[in-house]
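Final report, section 2: Outcomes. Of the targets proposed, Chaperonin 10-like protein is the one most frequently requested by collaborating groups, and we therefore present its record in full.
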Amino acid sequence: MPLKAFDDYAVEMDITHCGICGSDIHTIDSGWGPTDYPCVVGHEITGVCTRVGKKVKKVKVGDRIGVGAQSGSCLECENCKNGDENLCSKGMIPTYNGRWPNGDKSFGGYADKWRGHEHFVFKVPENMSNEIAATFFCAGVTTYSPLKRFGVKPGDKVGVIGIGGLGHYGLQWAKAMGASVVALSHSERKRADAKELGCDDYILTTDKKSMNEHSGTFTHILSTSFGSNFDWESYLGLLKTNGNFIIVGIPETPLTGIPAMMLAMHQISIVGSVIGSPAVIEDMLNFAAAHNVKPWISKYPMKEANEAVKAMREGKARYRFVLEN
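The predicted structure is given below as tokens.
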């Protein structure tokens, strides 16, 4: 597939690694809306910088670099100027399944080369390998950003629904921020993993007695997955007054059955969050390096991307697959 036109702000890299994200599957399947085929997915990309435009200042040839789910924005609207480029009011340019202003398509990281705008490219920290760094650029920032924004701190109690690619990051971030951390899972099979990831407790969500014992004790719940017939009342009942229910795992269908009176009487906020701004990504990389937050990954050769996607669909990731050139 052709790379975007090279310009003064372009950065090109030879891709070494690319994480497999749930977004890739949704996009392959047109689950979040019609996909603009042909499409090359992959937006947890690391590699080595091979070429830069003449106005690029952020990175240089030879640097180890990464890029996440966003490759461009207008950089001129109020949101962009306020440091919320991920919320660009003219629409962010996604790393794949998007269009650059000149009409070129954006193609992702299941490939050997990538090219994009310097503003959304980051140096990989010295103490982090490319394979470890890759999944921070989507799964990492998707979970870090809202926990930081909603002020998770020592003394808080954070629940994480879904111990997977996103959830295993969420548990580690909340723990590193000083909170008491609880995994919320519908089965027992991830209890040992949750403990190893730093959890203080583990709630089997099908056990009503256990759910009731924790009623009204959480300051934050990070939801990384939605099952069918999501029991809003049970989950929202876990939150303290003024608690935050944060949605980062985006279902393909609208939310239904939310008990409005419960929200009102407990002043509970249900909030969404999408990736993070470049400043938040820089902050996250520094925080991860300082607190030794690391994903659990398994690697596949890039040429076996189809097999890796199949394994991802079958729920075999523990907890992130990374493709390697």
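The longest helix spans residues 278-291.
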